[in-house]
Design a protein that fits this description.
Layout: H1 2-20, H2 26-35, H3 41-53, H4 58-84, H5 90-93, H6 112-127, H7 132-148, H8 154-175
Helix pairs in contact: 2-7, 3-4, 4-6, 4-8, 6-7, 6-8, 7-8
Amino acid sequence: MSKFIHVLYGFDCRIFQKINRYFHLYLLNLFFRTITHFGGARFTIISTILLFLTAWSRETRLLAISSALALASSHIPVHLAKEFFPRKRPYMTIEKTNILENPLQDHSFPSGHTTAIFAVLTPYILTIPTFSLVLILVGVCVGVSRIYLGLHYPSDVVFGAILGILAGCLSYSLLLM
């Protein structure tokens, strides 16, 4: 089993390095430094509150509540996973990683930003399919930004997306089905 884990880790590192190596490109840097905040606590909490306050119907308010419930509930498994799987961030273990000043110091697995954005977006993706492609692209860009900025391995991002989608689907089914 350990050889399988080693092979997966090597694959994770290679994908990470392919994405992180473009860090010096100004426009990519500007884009990823901006969009990464869409998955941050400040943005996701404020956006769910604003969506609730500006809701024009009961269904829209339920959608905003579903999104907020998904966001809140998704952080429990993220916190537990970070405790049980104390994986160091890639910039701590991979040489020549490009990184921002004052990088995060907590554990890498899973990506909380990716979990949060997918948790918030999933109820909207399920309810308003005409916007789903744009919303999915926003979520994917947040996830890629975490790798690009040297803060997460690809598997951190994938697992975070899965957690966020599961939380979003659960809250959607509880409130809107």
